Amino acid sequence: MPVPRLVPPGRSCDSRDLKAGSVVSDLNGYYDSQNIISIFDERLARSVLSCVLHHSDNREGGAGLTLSHTRSTNGGKIWSPLIPVETYPPQSHDGYQLRVGSRIYLFYGCNRGSQPAGGPQISRTDMQLDEGFWMKWSDDAGRSFSGDRVCIPIPRTEIDRCNPCAPTIGAFCCDKPQLIDGTLFFAFQKTRDGNGESYGSEVFVVRSRNFLEKHKTEKLFEIEFEVFPRGTVSGLQTPRGLLLGEEPHIMQISGAKMLLVWRTELGFLDSCVSFDYGENWVRDDPTIGTKNLSPLPTPLLYEPPPSSSTSSTACGSDVDVSLLNDTKLNAALLSDKRLNGLTPAGGGEQFMRNREEYLTSREHAAFVADNPWIMRHPRGAFTPFRLANGHYVLLYYNNGRTERVGYTCRLIYWLSVGKIVRKGELGSSATSSGNITTVTDSANAACQSDHLLRAPCESDQRYIRWSQPEIVLFWDGVCFDDSTREWSEEYAIVDGPGYADFQEDVETGELIVVESNKLTVRFHRVDTYLVESMKLQLVEQPKVDKVQQDEVNEEKKNEKETLRMRERLIRDSLVQSYESGAQLTSSSSSTLRCPVLADLRSGGGFTIRVVLDQFDPKAMLTGNANSEDAPRTMLVNGLTTASSALDEPAEDVVACDSPTIQKGYTIELGANGDLIFSLTDGFKIQFSMTLSAKSLVASPAQTAYYQLASAPTGPPLTSFCFVCDGGPKVATCVINDRLYNAAPCGWFSLPREFGEIGGADVEVVSSNVKGLQIFDRALSTSECIALFRETVVPY
Description:
Blueprint (H helix, E strand, L loop, with lengths): L21 E4 L4 E12 L4 E11 L9 E7 L10 E2 L6 E10 L2 E9 L16 E2 L2 E7 L11 E4 L15 E4 L5 E3 L2 E9 L10 E7 L2 H7 L8 E3 L17 E9 L2 E7 L5 E6 L53 H8 L13 H11 L2 H8 L13 E4 L5 E5 L15 E11 L7 H4 L28 E5 L3 E5 L23 E7 L6 E6 L4 E5 L2 H10 L8 H9 L1 H17 L2 E3 L13 E3 L11 E9 L3 H7 L9 E11 L16 E10 L5 E6 L5 E6 L1 H5 L2 H7 L10 E9 L4 E6 L2 E2 L8 E2 L11 E4 L4 E7 L5 H11 L4
Antiparallel strand pairs: 1-26, 2-3, 3-4, 4-5, 6-7, 7-9, 8-11, 9-10, 11-13, 12-13, 13-14, 14-15, 16-17, 17-18, 19-20, 20-21, 21-22, 21-23, 24-25, 25-26, 27-39, 28-38, 29-34, 29-39, 30-31, 30-38, 31-32, 32-33, 34-35, 35-36, 35-37
């Protein structure tokens, strides 16, 4: 048989699919806390990857948990067998690496895995510290770790006094240690009972100012560690709901100004700010106009909105006190440290009642549910990482669902890029003022004459502005939480990616990720185009004054890349009826021959973009508040009439006994201002995405967020990009330059069974439709934003 002259190409797959990643370890049982670093191996004369994870042969929190390490010498394709870090019986967990020069430091927890003497039996024993955290090191690029170890003592505080496992401490860490201006930092949480993620947990911060000095002199046992808040006081937590302070992470904003973020079960990430390198943490940040009205949460925002757009402190201005939740129950829980039933196993009735009351309160509605500026997140793992160029990336779930005490909807990871920017004028919005400029650390030198600040630095105007997110990883395999077994909060396994960690490839510059669904650990490379396009979202349009001109000149290269992206999009558009001033009506000229929409089972996708004039849902909502069942106005009709026969007479047809069906899509406007995008295969499978008018314009914050035509600074036209992505089976809509972000979740799950949909003949019905574009692929969020900026708000 002759040898083929050409080697067939490798099978292509969606790099976002969890199953497409390289397997690091798949011994079943339970995996967690995997993290990765890149280090130069002098023996091999090349960079290698070192991964540390913990694993047990049974279940999450089960006995025998072992911290192990593994390496890859070929860019993450093949990994060495797991080697335990500790060789004696006590179980070890939560290990995180820090590279300093040619040495790897490993920070981890370790305990005896014992049940409390004479106390109640607990379901898991992995989240305990007997003396504190520990530190080992490797001088051979992760092949082995030292036999010696240094203790990082953790002082007892108020929360430890009622711990049934006393004198051990209930604590664990998810924050990767980092060096910030020469000082070592990492955050961790304490729990009330050492039983896992129990209610009433608290956040603390570890800091070492002489770490580098002792590293250089090899006097590692002389390293001094501090824990904040100091003394025996309580740690930080969200003073609402279950009073959680879970899985915190530290991010430096500039100099002494730092951001501390942790997860909640209330649909958002809570945060505090420090102006003195972590000694004091406050919710008072003049950058975004928040007032220190304890115990008010401070949800993490994409960016601070205009001060005139909202009355919510969480959104960046003075709080409307009448909206605040009744805090009597909160006060009782905060003051009584010895309440019974604090854990899921014990019922936690007080905490659960507190949570349910808050989720239905006016405060939660104003601060969270009706606030599109919030980065929505359930009770799942999130991961920030600072890139070499100073940008941040944040991996999170982009939904604020609260079912199952927040342990839900964790199948899809989204990525956002953050840029450290300065507010042009205190109290004004980044989006409305257009005065965002990057600054150097020297700009705040006057506030940093003392290495550790004792008071908030009022002139530090910097914060992290986050891009609109993109899907970066998804899981469509077996879902245990949806199985017939009884779900348990104490054994809540992640259905999808979780506890990820980042690195930048030192050779290619690619962003690499290691994660697990707690059954298998996998390694991935993030599409560089995806990351770079999100950076371009943060490049402001050059409507600038002289002060900003220097920044604009520096970003000319980025602007050229933005234009190239837009040119590519215009070429990719298979159907484009977008001409300035064109009137597309219901005449014959408005009927377009279009591509048949992709079969979503293939993993493909499509994008339908419509540009509307005079879109004012606020007026319609006011006049038709109770008209949800009123007739809809057809804007775009993409239905195709086809035979109902599928080799034999169809049993399921739209009209009984009809020989035909209609398949395809429609875009309609409801009498109450809702915009409805619908898909159907003509038989049983139908899908509808409703952009609720109430979620768009019910509050000034919403109108300002989406920049609708009715907003003071909104464009005259409104762009809607309906994106159907057959990989993760997700439908999204980008409204102008914002991803739809209604509560609890702004994106929609597509039916997995969707097959051939049609859509070859499209009729533009309404004269309010000023533009229509159809793409035979799912555009990214960044690409949809680029289209808006090119055709609605051009340079």
